[in-house]
Write the structure tokens for this entry.
Amino acid sequence: MDLAFAISLFLLVTAWLVLDWVFGLGMDVWAAQGDQSRIDVAGLAHIRRTQVLLVVVLTVAVLAGINRAWRTVVAQVLAALLVGGVLMAAQHQWDTSHTSPGCIRYAAHC
């Protein structure tokens, strides 16, 4: 029973990530039709939804650990690594697309 639940939760998290990336972020960017402020809002909303999903996955992992469902814990930790990777990629994309063009005084790279 634990293994079936673990696999189901992992697949649910993975499907949510894919659907949110395609339909949540992708459709918002498409609907913005080049309006950079709406694209930025869609990107930040996607980052926030991914952060919430990461918290949910880690909470489920802790609850599974309390109930000694070790396979579910392992599946949720793997899902948390997947969500964390997506979150890192989204934040890195945001950071690289929103860097200041000039040099800031006292910065390390000046």
In short: The two ends are 58 Å apart (CA to CA). Residues 91 and 97 are 10 Å apart (CA to CA). The chain has a mean pLDDT of 88.
